[in-house]
Amino acid sequence: MPRYALKIEYNGQPFFGWQRQDKLSTVQRAIEEVLAKLEPAEHRIAAAGRTDAGVHALGQVAHCDLKKDWESFRLTEALNFHLKPLPVSIIDCAVVPEDWHARFSATERYYVFRLLTRRAPATHEKGLVWQVVHALDLETMQKGAANLLGTHDFTTFRSSNCQAQSPVKTLNALDIEKIVGWSGTEFRFHIKARSFLHNQVRSFVGTLERVGAGQYSTADIKHALSARDRSKCGPVCPPQGLYLKKVFYSKDPFEKPN
Hints:
Number of strands: 10
Strand content: 25-35%
Helix content: 10-25%
Structural class: alpha+beta
Number of domains: 2
CATH class of the largest domain: Alpha Beta
Distance between the termini: 28 Å
CATH architecture of the largest domain: 2-Layer Sandwich
CATH superfamily of the largest domain: Pseudouridine synthase I, catalytic domain, C-terminal subdomain
Shape: globular
Number of helices: 5
Mean pLDDT: 95
Low-confidence stretches: none
Order of helices and strands: EHEEHEEEHEEEHHE
């Protein structure tokens, strides 16, 4: 039974997250139902990350097992045909070893968060960014973010519902860039780690936004981290600006030979 890795792009607005839930529209459920049209049976797929409701993906990765030996291009085309008109697209597909796992084989996950600053309501970017109406200071946010890099107990930046066995994680990157675009000034947060706690990224961004707005100091970030106390976290920002951009593996299953 061949195993296939799928690289998936989706707009999270109409979904109740990635993970399958009874009677609710989720990305996992949508893909599994399409797989059942291609090979009638009950299908279960596993993903690199269980994105929350409203969160998007540019490069989510999942794997599925099928009976038929599908040519990768044909499987991609068939899945995309049946996924229409949902805002979900299979952008790549590859055969992988039977012990390869989209979640457990991953070595790093890369998220991007988009924060738009302007007073007028967003139109074209609505649902795709978190919008605030006040200015933010990039340099101050960057200084605050530097305190979060490395290995720490991230209890402060962890959802009270998080099911991870340990709050200790290693944050590899938290870079912030300022972009002046068509819709206004946008701040993009580039965040990388092997794995994340539930709501960790949104807790980071919500807290750093308060730093950029001048409501928190960079020292407050240090104190919040060392406190290991959820009540010391800043507000958790909404999900719509968050994107799972890429998942890394020791050997990229989608890498094409030269």
